[in-house]
Design goal:
Elements: E1 2-8, H1 13-22, E2 29-35, E3 42-46, E4 49-53, E5 56-65, H2 70-81, E6 89-95, H3 109-112
Antiparallel strand pairs: 1-5, 1-6, 2-5, 3-4
Helix pairs in contact: 1-2
Length: about 110
């Protein structure tokens, strides 16, 4: 099993979610995050005062999938998140040793199906 994690722009979450549904994903976790990459934050004006914000709002999307579905999930997230500009985000995958569906006690691949 793999845990695919993506950091994407907040305005691209709906597109990422739709792309994942089309690829057959039946569950995901979404949480708020903040950070920066090459764009290194941005300058804002508040009540006439200019200040630099180093951390930008982002969304973290996590999907637990079988090994053979990982490439399709990564491609779906990439297609939904891409705008072609700095700040589109990152995607990575990690090996998962086990998963347990708490309600039924199912383990492994059966727990994520």
């Amino acid at each position: 099993m793999k845990l695919v994690t993506a950091i994407v722009r907040p305005e691209r979450v709906d597109a990422v979610s739709a792309a994942l549904e089309e690829s057959g994903v039946n569950g995901m976790t979404v949480s708020q995050a903040s950070g920066y990459g090459r764009q290194r934050g941005h300058v804002e004006v508040y009540r006439g005062a200019e200040y630099t914000s180093d951390l930008l709002p982002k969304i973290r999307v996590e999907v637990l999938v079988d090994d053979d579905a990982m490439e399709d999930v990564v491609a779906a997230i990439e297609a939904g998140a891409r705008t072609g500009s700095f700040g589109d985000g990152k995607i990575w995958a990690m090996e998962v040793c086990d998963a347990v569906r708490v309600r039924t006690g199912e383990r492994g691949a059966a727990a994520i199906a």
